[in-house]
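lol ok so funny story. i was supposed to be doing the assay writeup but got distracted and ended up predicting the structure for this chain instead. priorities right. anyway since i did it might as well share w the group, maybe its usefull for someone
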Amino acid sequence: MDADINFYFDPVCPFAWMTSKWVRQVQAQREYTVDWRFISLRQINAHVDYDAHFPPEYEAGHTAGLRLLRVAARARAEHGPESIARLYEAFGTHIFEAAPDTDQRTESEMRERRGTREFVEPILAEAGLPLELAEALDDDSWDSEIRQETDEALALTGKDVGTPIIHFEPPAGVAFFGPVISRLPDEQSAAELWDHVVGLARFPGFAELKRSLREQPQLPAFGVAADTVGQQEDWHGGSRRQKK
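and the output, tada:
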């Protein structure tokens, strides 16, 4: 039986994480079913010269995201798709819901650490999953499955997108990149926002509503408290690329 939505995520994307928190709010109110699926920013940007086009920490971050997705793919294979909801929640909580512990590390080093056993094993334990799943970090045999779902997501939206991608009312419903949100709504506003987004998704021929200016998300990892507004940045081309 199809889920009410398919949610395609890369675990290192802060905007996917923020949108997933909103989706969980709505899920609790509406009793929706969600199939948490994979999309890899590292695979999407496999053709890109990271040094020329991205801030210096991006390649380490995207590579760590792919490594975490390998762990998630093995978890799903061995423990079922229901394991992904709690594993993604644990990933996101550790990556985004704590103030950055620099420990004299550079930003690239902190992002690279997310793809290590040192980082992953406590998260697996928290999610109630075997620590041996961390062996998948270095197992690129999972990459074809991750690529298949990445291609699946892009086939639904087109290629000029990032994460998250939400497929509404699959298989016949439409899919969109986003919504990209920087602030988590309250419970009432969460449902209202959901109804507006679904209304757009159900309108025949609707394709895009977009702006590239984004606030930094209200997440401790960015030093942005829930009662403050993050600095605006221009995410042209779907990211903070240095070049188009």
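The chain has a mean pLDDT of 90. The radius of gyration is 17 Å.
back to the writeup now i swear
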